[in-house]
Design a protein that fits this description.
heterodimer; A: mainly alpha; MetI-like fold; 2 domains; B: alpha/beta; Rossmann fold; six-stranded mixed beta sheet; four-stranded antiparallel beta sheet; globular; binds adenosine-5'-triphosphate; binds magnesium ion
């Protein structure tokens, strides 16, 4: 390792600070062993609960193969190896956790059913019910993205207006402040009456949930633009419009993205609750419906899908953010 | 006599301090700035140099009196009067070439045919290969060079510089003084610079406006006839410097002004 960190010039240092865990193959073999143990436990300890462990075994097998592939890749690629070795200890813990969970549930029924199903059971249900789960996930995604896009759009409009013009600020700020403290979900009963479908009502609620943080962060970003920035632009012949859209808005961009990320978090909550209460589709509805049948394994399956879907959305927003704010790289840590 | 580029007539500018007391920043200023001239303002801190420069730029307005450019009274900023602040204040979200091109973009004059011009300026200030860099990747001197060129891109009639070199170390300062002289010789633009550094003023200017402590007044306008190649050790250079220092001391109510003691 010392050899590689010498040949890698300036880029090696921050990498080491970020991926600071020891880089030994030992953890790789331990991790592989934990997953192999998981397979063996599942294969050779008899089940207490009747389930179909097929998908669970494929998952474990997949993990074992994937780890091996990563290990081989990490032999060729140092940047990848840094990341991979850093995360190995955690992956090892996951392997152990899965094996222990399997023993405590499917193998011994130590944890009470139906509230704590085994992972094998959850994975099995996930595969079995994949059509409905996918449909629900798609429905939730559509609802979320429509609401977020509209809410962000309106939030940018009202945020720019209040941040830029005294007149708009005078009339809009009190309304924004009052409506901002009310959680969007309380409008659900009214939304269900006002809108023709539960879907449009859901979009409406997410628009409200996302509109507020985007508005207030945009406005505060625009207001805090340094006066000298405008003065420089003015001496360069910039019109008011140019000063707003080419100086104030770019200056406010980091703030705007804080608003958008907050809006995403608010919208997740609003999305799931509105689907649980008002809708006939989506992951929130699926959870509620599964609970009604006492199908806790389905509920856990839906929760895992929610976690995956929301992580993907956050990663997407994060990628857009780091592209738009690429000029900040090196300024911030 | 030809018309001066900038004509300042009995200009006063007062500020209210936070106890609502009036501060007389500038009192009865009369000044002509001729086309192609390099003029410096020197004077004690707080005497209104920045105020005067901002008035000329149109960033501020006088309470009484008028400032006109080629006979027309100024009411606002205009791209024909470029301004450079003490801090480079490049826009951090724009690359160096985007920062420099901003004046053209603001006036909707930017197109591909302007790229060569931008490149010319970037090469001139020695920032070749930094076109796509962001401002935080530049040193203070590099950033200030970019800021000066940004103010030049609109081909202004007059360049107003408010202590543009004050934030720099001695080496970068000498570098930038040379750059300013180069620009001035090359473009024959009118330049007005505020500075704390009397040496710098004598080294660069044709005319030095010496201002008094508050309320800011013009004590004297000195013509510097030292030719093109100026040496700081030249006895004429030193004589001018002594003269300015004595003027400043007279006006400063016997206050010690350590920045002028050499
Ligand atoms: N916006 C303002 N509000 C109130 N007072 C001001 C304002 N701007 C300047 N002044 C006052 O006007 C006077 C002149 O200020 P100015 O900035 O023009 O001085 P200066 O000669 O540029 O000083 P320095 O050499 O320190 O930069 C100072 O007493 C200052 O306190
Ligand atoms: Mg000043």
């Amino acid at each position: 390792m010392t050899k590689t960190s010498k040949t890698q010039s300036t880029k090696a240092l921050p990498q080491d600070e970020r991926y600071w865990k020891p880089k030994t193959s030992l953890w790789f073999w331990a991790t592989e062993a934990s997953f192999i143990a998981g397979v063996l436990i599942n294969l050779y300890i008899p089940d207490e609960v009747t389930i179909n462990p097929h998908s669970y075994r494929i998952l474990l097998g997949g993990a074992i193969v994937l780890l091996l592939v990563f290990y081989i890749v990490s032999k060729q690629n140092t940047a990848f190896a840094n990341k991979f070795y850093h995360r190995l200890e955690f992956i090892f813990a996951i392997g152990v956790f899965m094996a222990v969970w399997d023993i405590l549930t499917t193998k011994t029924s130590f944890l009470p059913l139906p509230y704590f199903p085994g992972l094998a059971q959850i994975i099995g249900i996930m595969v079995e019910d994949r059509a409905l789960l996918l449909l629900s996930a798609g429905h939730s995604f559509l609802l979320f993205s429509l609401g977020m896009v509209l809410g962000t759009f309106f939030g940018l409009l009202s945020g720019i207006a209040t941040g830029w013009s005294r007149q708009w600020d005078y009339w809009l700020s009190p309304i924004i402040r009052v409506s901002g403290i009310i959680p969007a979900i309380v409008w659900l009963p009214i939304a269900l009456v006002l809108f023709p479908t539960s879907f449009t009502a859901g979009v409406f609620l997410i628009v409200i949930a996302s509109w507020f943080p985007v508005t207030s962060m945009t406005a505060s970003g625009i207001i805090s633009t340094p006066k000298t920035y405008f003065e420089i632009a003015k001496t360069l012949g910039a019109s008011k419009k140019f000063q707003l859209f080419r100086i104030a808005v770019p200056y406010a961009m980091p703030n705007i993205f804080i608003g958008i990320l907050t809006a995403v978090a608010f919208s997740f909550v609003t999305l799931i609750v509105s689907e649980m209460v008002g809708a006939k589709a989506g992951l929130g509805y699926y959870i509620n419906w599964a609970k009604g049948w006492g199908a806790y394994d389905k509920m856990y399956a839906a929760i895992i899908i929610i976690a995956a879907e929301f992580s993907l959305i956050l990663a997407l927003v994060g990628a857009i953010r780091s592209y738009v704010l690429r000029w900040q790289r090196g300024i911030l840590k | 006599m030809t018309q001066p580029l900038i004509e300042i007539k009995s200009v006063c500018r007062n500020y209210m301090d936070n106890t609502q007391k009036e501060i007389y920043a500038l009192e009865n200023i009369n000044l002509h700035i001729n086309e192609g001239e390099f003029m410096s303002f020197v004077g004690p801190s707080g005497c209104g140099k920045t105020t005067l420069l901002r008035l000329i730029a149109g960033l501020d307005r006088p309470q009484s009196g008028t400032i006109s450019q080629e006979g027309k009274i100024l009411t606002d900023t205009h791209y024909s009067r470029g301004y450079v602040f003490q801090q480079p204040t490049l826009f951090p979200w724009l690359t160096i070439e985007e920062n420099i091109a901003l004046g053209l973009k603001a006036r909707k004059l930017f197109d591909n045919s302007k790229k060569a011009l931008i490149q010319y300026y970037i090469d001139m200030i020695g920032l070749t290969k930094f076109e796509k860099a962001f401002p935080h990747e530049l040193s203070g001197g590099m950033a200030q060079r970019a800021a000066i060129v940004r103010a030049l891109i609109n081909d202004p009639k007059i360049l107003l510089l408010d202590e543009p070199l004050a934030a720099l170390d001695a080496f970068a300062r000498i570098d930038l003084q040379k750059l300013l002289l180069f620009i001035w010789h090359k473009t024959k633009k009118t330049m007005v610079m505020v500075t704390h550094d009397i040496d710098e003023a004598i080294f660069l200017s044709q005319q030095i406006v010496v201002m008094s402590d508050r309320p800011g007044k013009i004590i004297e306008i000195l013509d510097i006839n030292l030719g093109k190649d100026r040496k700081r050790s030249d006895h004429k250079f030193i004589a001018i410097k002594d003269k300015i220092i004595s003027k400043l001391k007279l006006s400063s109510h016997n206050r010690i002004e350590p920045e002028y003691v050499i």
